[in-house]
Write a structure and sequence with these properties.
Chain lengths: ~375, ~350
């Protein structure tokens, strides 16, 4: 572990940070125009907020959080379905954050308080182990997340999972979500910081078709503060040179092809289909569906769950979660932020999850919108 | 299917020392306060002061009960001793309440009681009264210990308060209202050791660590420090960690606190563990550390005493109190600035 730490120190080096800050300022001055950069990962938002990186950027450079928090984008109807199954006696296993996000009626945590058996696990392996250990109970793994967690589930499926374990699959495919945002001009985003661990799995390759259409700079980026500063510098350099391209800052993890083994495993188990991002829209090819061969493990088939996407009451009245998730507004622009919706009593998913922009901003006590360079 | 709100039931977070617990105390327990005492209940400090007597209570529900560097017995003495010491009091006597689960091994109980005896001796306090209850199997997790403690006013506190009079009008005890702009914030050693040690003692956590808990009585050290003077307030960063403590100070004193991330002492192994677990070291509980607000002209002497004491050898000045900022602000390692918020709960539950 100490070896890991000694490497990590470079990625938080104060002098390197100072040098990058200077170079960023220099380029920003030369470019003159306002540059809006979007990242699509809760971990990036955390790094940016936690290390105070926005306070280091010049006036005409803005970094905005886009859709990248798995808990935030999980449809309310999926949460409702999982909570209902928990109350019907099925043991529901899922990640900690997911238990606190409310669907339209309740969260899984609230279902547990009402007597449901809801268990927090760290990964699908825990669900498999529990189901094996307690063969007389029915287990459900609420499979939420991105392409980063989907391969582990696919791998377990191929290995064979116990009879009494089914899956409520709510995975989303990051390249399709970021790709749609790249192609859209609605948000006025000039460049993208791509989620390092997602790209580690998918590779940069799936982004190429979106890049060809949008010609917007994109840099696959790691999660240390120096990584993010470096990515911003690389983006500005591309803009200054007038040569947009797909670049890789996170070379210690990301390749063009990605994790081919993980992709093969995913391909064997899942098909891509349209995927609903809670409160935002249905994105083409952003959802995962179990292939015919594994349909017997699909909780939707097993428990007769209807496929639903948008619901009438997606959020509590007045909440602007969807706009926060898409980076259209900053959390303080939502009337509920830090008033009735707080980390200790969240109303919307972005305030529940540690990857949610609202949670990150609120726990860092941010009360003002970030300086907008373009509105 | 009816709807419930998680606010209607108690969750583990309500006992974790962060903002959930503060809300619960404000909503439910604060009604018990009638303003009695020099430091009454509603000040929500480490201990109450009635006349010249310091009085406090604490319950211990740690899992596992034996961990690297300590056990629930040692913890239940130091927890209460330190709460008294942080008020400037000198702990004298403790009560001991033990609730056991049916089937608890007698040998384990003896081991715990031996540890209580040894720690009490180390802290120079006496166990003077007690109570034992047993509950049926499954009603509680093995053992719960409660200790209450009595302390008196030492002459060292008189001296310390006297030194503060040169720069301010202090209260009679070490309370946040004594804190003034310009005071330096000192932490008496490396942070996060206890939480990481307890966590790594648990089965199935998936990481190993050689870190041992820092659990230790701080009353002796506090007397040495008050003898120097200049200490405006002291508090032990237990549940909720340094983050919760500084937030408390900022709210209660109405002043801002500025700290520098690069100055905060953290053992490499603890740093590695928090990286691995994705938790914030400032939110981790400690059981043998204090955070001090010290009048600037005494900082050199205080640091000298700390560095010569085994419980203070890694002490560091991590920041200062300021009136030009609000809340707790930290300069990060890369030079950015951010607020340090109050944690929701402890990222590692049941550590004390």
């Amino acid at each position: 572990m100490s070896e890991y730490l000694s490497i990590l120190k470079y990625y938080r080096d104060p002098n390197l940070a100072k040098a990058l800050r200077f170079k960023i300022a220099e380029l920003a001055k030369k470019i003159e125009e306002n540059i809006m950069i979007m990242h699509v990962c809760g971990s990036h938002e955390w790094t940016i907020t936690h290390y105070g990186i926005r306070s280091l950027l010049p006036e005409n450079v803005e970094v905005r959080a886009g859709p990248g928090c798995p808990v935030c984008i999980t449809p309310a109807t999926d949460i409702d379905d999982a909570a209902k199954l928990a109350l019907d006696g099925v043991v529901v296993a899922t990640y900690g954050d997911m238990t606190r996000a409310r669907g339209t009626r309740m969260s899984l945590e609230e279902a547990r308080a009402l007597g449901g058996d809801v268990r927090v696990i760290y990964g699908v392996q825990d669900a498999v182990r529990m189901a094996r250990r307690e063969p007389n109970k029915d287990f459900l793994f609420f499979a939420v997340g991105m392409d980063t967690t989907a391969p582990a589930t696919a791998f377990e499926m191929i290995k064979g999972v116990p009879e009494n374990l089914s899956f409520l699959v709510s995975y989303r495919y990051t390249p399709a979500i970021q790709g749609s945002v790249m192609e859209s001009n609605v948000l006025g985003i000039d460049a993208f910081i791509s989620a390092g661990h997602s790209v580690t799995v998918t590779g940069l390759k799936p982004y190429y078709e979106y890049f060809l259409k949008s010609k917007k700079p994109m840099v696959a980026t790691g999660f240390e503060p120096i990584d993010v500063l470096m990515a911003i510098y690389m983006i500005l350099k591309q803009i200054d040179e007038g040569r947009p391209r797909i670049e890789n800052e996170y070379t210690r993890s990301v390749t063009w092809e990605g994790n081919v083994k993980a992709q093969e495993v995913m391909d064997r188990v899942f098909d891509l289909e349209d995927g609903y991002v809670r409160g935002v829209a249905v994105f083409p090819r952003a959802g995962f569906r179990l292939k015919e061969e594994f349909r017997g493990k699909d909780a939707r088939a097993q428990y007769g769950i209807r496929d639903r996407t948008k619901t009438q009451d997606e959020y509590v009245a007045g909440a602007r979660c969807g706009e926060v998730v898409m980076g259209l507004i900053d959390p303080p622009e939502c009337p509920l932020y830090r008033k009735t919706c707080k980390p200790e009593d969240p109303k919307g998913a972005p305030m529940v999850s540690q990857e949610g922009t609202c949670w990150i901003w609120a726990t860092h006590r941010i009360v003002n919108v970030s300086p907008r360079c373009r509105r | 299917m009816g709807t419930v709100n998680s606010r209607d039931v108690i969750t583990l977070l309500h006992g974790a020392g962060g903002s959930y617990m503060h809300t619960l105390i404000r909503e439910v327990f604060i009604r018990l306060s009638d303003g009695f005492g020099e430091v009454p209940l509603d000040l929500m400090d480490d201990a109450a002061v009635i006349g010249n007597t310091v009085f406090t209570t604490d319950s211990f529900v740690i899992r596992p009960i034996f961990f690297k560097g300590g056990d629930i017995g040692r913890l239940s003495v130091t927890g209460t001793v330190n709460d008294i010491a942080m008020m400037g009091g000198e702990p004298i006597a403790l009560s001991l309440g033990v609730i056991l689960e049916e089937g608890f091994p007698k040998s384990d109980l003896e081991r715990i009681v031996d540890s209580i005896r040894d720690t009490a001796k180390e802290a120079k306090v006496h166990i003077v009264t007690g109570d034992t209850k047993v509950m049926e199997r499954g009603s509680l997790d093995r053992i719960v210990i409660n200790t209450s403690g009595l302390g008196v006013r030492p002459k060292e506190l008189d001296h310390d308060i006297e030194t503060l009079r040169k720069t301010r009008q202090p209260r009679d005890w070490l309370v946040p209202l004594n804190i003034r702009p310009g005071d330096k914030v000192i932490v008496t050693g490396t942070v996060g050791d206890h939480a990481v040690a307890v966590l790594s003692s648990r089965e199935g956590v998936g990481f190993e660590s050689n870190i041992t808990s820092d659990v230790a009585p701080l009353n002796g050290l506090m007397l040495n420090l008050m003898e120097v003077g200049g200490i405006a307030d002291a508090k032990d960063p237990t549940r909720g960690g340094v983050a919760d403590l500084l937030q408390d100070w900022s709210e209660k004193s109405g002043l801002g606190i500025y700290i520098r991330e690069s100055e905060i002492p953290v053992k490499d192994e603890v740093r590695a563990a928090v990286e691995f677990l994705g938790i914030d070291v400032l939110e981790l509980g400690n059981e043998g550390k204090a955070v001090l607000a010290v009048s600037p002209e005494y900082v050199r002497d205080i640091m000298a005493v700390l560095h010569s004491h085994p419980l203070g050898k890694n002490a560091a000045v991590i920041g200062e109190v300021r009136k030009d900022i609000e809340g707790v602000v930290m300069e990060t390692v890369v030079g950015g600035e951010r607020y340090v918020g109050r944690p929701l709960g402890d990222p590692v539950p049941r550590i004390c």
